[in-house]
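Researcher: For the record, we're logging two predictions in this thread. I'll number them. Prediction 1 follows.
Model: Prediction 1, sequence and structure:
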Amino acid sequence: VRPSADLASALCRVIDGGPIAAPARGTSLKSLLRKGELLIAPGVFDGMSLKIAEKVDFQALYMTGFGTVGSHLGVPDAGIASYGEMVERVRTLAGLTFTPLICDADTGFGGLLNVAHTVRGYEAAGAAAIQLEDQEFPKKCGHTPGRKVVSIEQAVARIRVAVESRRSADFLIIARTDARTSLGLDEAIRRGRAFAEAGADIVFVESPESEEEMRRIGEELGHVPLLVNAVEGGKTPLLSRSRYAELGYQIAIFPATAFLAMGSAVERALTALKETGDTQRCRGDLADFKDFCLTMGFQDVWDFDKKHAELEDEIRESLVKRPRTSSGP
C-alpha cells in the first residue's frame, strides 16, 4: 500500500536505514527505551496521519499538540484547546492503534488538581505516556517566542502529582522544561534534574540551540532517558539518528514532519486546481485513490460485506425450513 507520497516519504526520511517493524500488541513504551539507541516517534494529529504512520511501521507515535489543535480546531497551539477537547483526541487516536502513543498535555490544564485529573484521563483514554511542561498558562509552542515558565517549585510539584496520580508504572511521565529560552541552559538542566528526582520517567529539555548544549544535557542528565524535539525550522539542531544517540538521547519526536509535508502538498495541489481548473498539474502530489482506501481500512469493510452479503437470505431460508409449531387450546 502506498500512502500519500509527500507524507510517507517525509516519515521514511526520519528513519536512518529504512522502516522499523511495528511492535506487537501490548508493547509498552518503557520496554522500547534502551541506552545507546534512539526511538523515533513521528507526530500524528488525526486519523489519516496515524494510519499512514502505522503503514510506515514506526515503533512509537507522538500526538503533537500543534498538529492536533490545528487540525481539530484550526487555531494556534497557544493554550486555547481545553482538556476535554484534547483527551477526546487522545481517546480517538489511541483507539486506532496498538502502537504506543505519546500524548502532549501542555501544562496539565490548570492547577495541581487539574494535573491529577489530566493524568488519569489520558491514561484511561489509552495514551502510553503523557508530556507535561513548566510553562505558564496559557502555554505556547516550544519553538515560538514569548514563552514564560513557572517557578521550579511549581514545576516540580506538577511532576510529583503526575507520578502519584497514574495507575500503572507503565504509563510514563515525560517532564518538559522550557526554561532554556528565557532562563538559560543551567536552569533548564537544574529543572531537568529536579524532574528526574520527582519521579519523571523521561526528561525533555526543550529548544537547546547547539550540539554543545545537547552534549551538556546528555552528560548532566544522562542517568534518565532523554527526549529531543526535532522540528524542521525550529531552534534545535537536526542531526542524524546515530548522533542523537551519541549525545545521550533515547527518544526523538518529529512533531512537525507530517503536518508540514501535508501543508506543502495540499497547498501545491489546491493552487494548481485554482490556477488551471483541473488536477492534471498536481497528480504527482496525490496518492493513488485505491491504495489510499486500503490505507484507511476499506479492505475490512469489503471483506465484511462479502462475508455477510447473503446472510439475510440464509436466515430467511432457515426460517422457512424450520418446522412450524401448532398452537391450540
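Researcher: Logged. Prediction 2.
Model: Prediction 2, sequence and structure:
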Amino acid sequence: GRRRGRWRSSSSSCRFAPFARLLFHTMSVPLIPAAKGVADASQVDSVVDKYLNYHDDNKEDHNALRKANYTEMINQYYDMATDFYEWGWGTSFHFAPRYKGENFYASIARHEHYLALKLKLEPGYKVLDVGCGVGGPAREIARFSRAHVTGVNNNQYQLNRAALHTTRQGLNHLCAWQKGDFMHLPFEDNTFDAIYQIEATAHAPDKVACYKELMRVLKPGGLFASYEWCLTDEYDASNAEHQKIKKYIEEGDGLPDIATTREVKAALEEAGYEVLEDEDVAVLHNPNADLPWYHPLEPRYTPSGIQHTPLGRTITSRALQLLEAVRIVPKGTYRVQDFLTRAADGLVAGGRLNLFTPAYFTLSRKPLE
C-alpha cells in the first residue's frame, strides 16, 4: 500500500537509511520536548500565558498588537516550540508533498533542492536563508549546491541549536549563523547572490516592508525564492469554520495574520521585484498516488501517526503532566503541546478544504538598476 512506500527504496542498500536517520535524529534532539528555549524554566507557564494573550481576540481584535510586538511574540513561540519541532519533525521546519515511493525525509530534501535549482546556485555563491530555524534547509542546500549559506534568525535558542547541528555535521565551512530581524537585516546593501525563505516570512508584520528589506541586501539581478504560507481563493472570510481554521493556524504557529496568495504576489511587485514564477507547489499533480503536505499530521494508528489520534494525544498530554508533577519538565510544557495540537488540527483542516497552503512558491528578481 501507499504507506509502505515511505520505507521502500530502489536498492536494498538504502532500505535502512530511514533507520540511520532516525538514530542520528534521536542522538541530536532532546529525548523529551521541554520548551528549553525559555531561559528560566520556572517561567514557561507564564510565557505561555503571555503568548496566548496575543491571540485572544474574544474581547477585542489583537491583530494590531501581534504585528506591533511581532519580535516578542515570535521569540516566545519558538522558545517554547523548538524542542517539540525537533522532537516530532526533525531539523527542517517545513512541509512538503510526498511522491509515491518517497519517504518523509526525501520529500523534505527535494523541496529544498527545488529552491537551489530555481536559484541556479553554484559553488562560491553567497546565499541568505531568511528565518533559518535550526538550520536544516541551509545545511541541505549548502551540501547540495556547495554554495555558502548564511542563516539569519532572531531567536537565539534556535541559532544555538543550528550551530550545534552544523558542527556535528562538519559543515561550518559552508554555513554561518547571524542573529537578526528580517525586517532590519544586519547586512550591507547588495551582499548576497541569492536569497530564499521557507515558511518564515509568514511571521512578518508587513510583507511589503519585509520584501523591500530582503531586496536591499540582494545583489542587482539576484533571485529571491520563497515558499509562503497563504490563504487560497477557497478561503471565505465570512465562513465561521474557515475563520476558526485560520485562527488555529495563527495561534498554533506564531503568526500575526495570514495573507492570501494574491496579496503576497502584489506585495512582491509593490516592493519592486519582477515576479518570474508563482505557483502553489503544495497542489498534488498525481492525487491518486501521492501524499498531501499535511499527511504527517493526519491521525493514523501507525508508528508515525498515532500521536495525532485522540489516544495518542491523551497519552502525550498525560505523560507531560506527569513529568511536570515530578519536575522533569517545567510547568506549562503540556500547554505548549496543547496549542501545537490545535495548530495541527487547523493545518489538516485547511489542507483538506484547500483553503490554506504552506507552499505558495514565488521566484522573483531584483532589477539590475
